[in-house]
Amino acid sequence: xxxxxxxxxxxxxxxxxxxxxxxxxxxxxxxxxxxxxxxxxxxxxxxxxxxxxxxxxxxxxxxxxxxxxxxxxxxxxxxxxxxxxxxxxxxxxxxxxxxxxxxxxxxxxxxxxxxxxxxxxxxxxxxxxxxxxxxxxxxxxxxxxxxxxxxxxxxxxxxxxxxxxxxxxxxxxxxxxxxxxxxxxxxxxxxx
Length: 192
Description:
It contains eight helices and five strands. It is α/β, with parallel strands linked by helices and about 190 residues long. A five-stranded mixed beta sheet has the order 1-3-2-4-5.
């Protein structure tokens, strides 16, 4: 796991939690300079997505590591946490588990999909090969990049960074991340 702190160290603490198959640099790279002016940022890269040889274990194990870091380094409290896509699952888990406190939990593009073990297994068997194959070969790469640029209005640099996520990380980490996200449910009516 990688935790990188930067920005206005006297500002309110804001944790940035990236989405599926991403590191914080790709997910938040364009907003970090502006956020750094006001906030003390804690940027997270999960096991398997942090440049190490580690494999992403599961959502709960990673949530526990994030909780421990916040408890050990920030007295168990954050002013805010932003989760992009899968990162929203972590924000929800951190709030629901009540092992630490977040004043403001922000879900950005959450899917929060939930399923049973068989469905999660089948979905991960279908989706992960798709996620890891669309950058194979120059023709596929170029076609994918053009779709990202037109459909998602990404510029060249961001489209390239996004595609690198799916080719630079271990398929096993991607599978574990996708699979365990489907099995990690949030309670209804969370009250803190």
